[in-house]
């Protein structure tokens, strides 16, 4: 079981590992290629857009053919994209290679949740998802530090070589893992259509998916804008930026650990309500800061990510509980929506705001409020996880 949990954690960590390790290099690439942030940030946007689109394919394919074949194919694609990133001689080649990376990374995110749905009962699944969130929080905490150390002693293409090695490790783990879903007979296009029809007819699931996607908006705005805010705005070094970014990720880990420790006592529904309410508080902290300096940004963002860490494991588990079959399709739609909204937040934070901290604060306040209102209207209609 420990091996399975670690493998799921690595697979679900692909997006933060593929983005956060690269963040310290963004201001560096701006300088060496003499490009504005809006152009360099396309390497983030064009990772997430193909990533999101591929999610809609990998999940249903895993319902049809089993989890391992599409997952293996996606990991090979991710490794190939990482290699092309290391060979990029211009921003446009790097953007294209990042798109290939995104197409491959979608398999890991979509299918890992379906594998958890296959092998774990509801109560145990929520605890395992909390454990995975704790482990996964190490990725955004350590990744920028690794990236900044690589930039200090080597060159930026080595960052993507390290990501390719991560893909090889995940591929080896998947090859050793037993298949968790036998697949279904029938025509692939018909199976895809029927699977999406069944899932899209569950309004409770769609409502939960929207809550999760909207709640993540300030996190993605932070990912896209934090390097510019800390390095250019507060004149911090790449190493200090990585440290503050890591502290923010530590807050996410603390939220997931709190969910693991107190979730059973407080209850799934109250944990989600608490999480969305905390995001609102963090947004208010960004809009009305009580201190100056970089911590006027770091502390409220820490509050936002802490409460996002509280809400994610129970909300993801609750979403999976709304389906009896088509877990891969449901997982695909859930992760697709989360990262599609995230890509929109990345685009929005790149629009040369005069005060990007204020923009992130407004985003957090609005997204937390919308998620909380929708959640309060939805919570009494949901199928709750079984104890196990």
Comma- or semicolon-separated keywords:
single chain; 388 residues; Growth Hormone, Chain: A; globular
How is this structure best described in words?
With 388 residues, the chain is an all-alpha fold. It has a single domain (2-381), classed as MFS general substrate transporter like domains (Growth Hormone, Chain: A, Up-down Bundle). It is 82% helix and 0% strand. The chain has 18 helices and no strands. It has helices spanning 2-12, 14-20, 25-32, 37-40, 42-65, 68-86, 91-119, 122-136, 138-153, 157-176, 188-200, 203-215, 217-233, 238-266, 268-287, 295-321, 327-349, 356-378. α5 packs antiparallel against α6 (68-86). The protein is globular. The two termini are 15 Å apart. The mean pLDDT is 85.
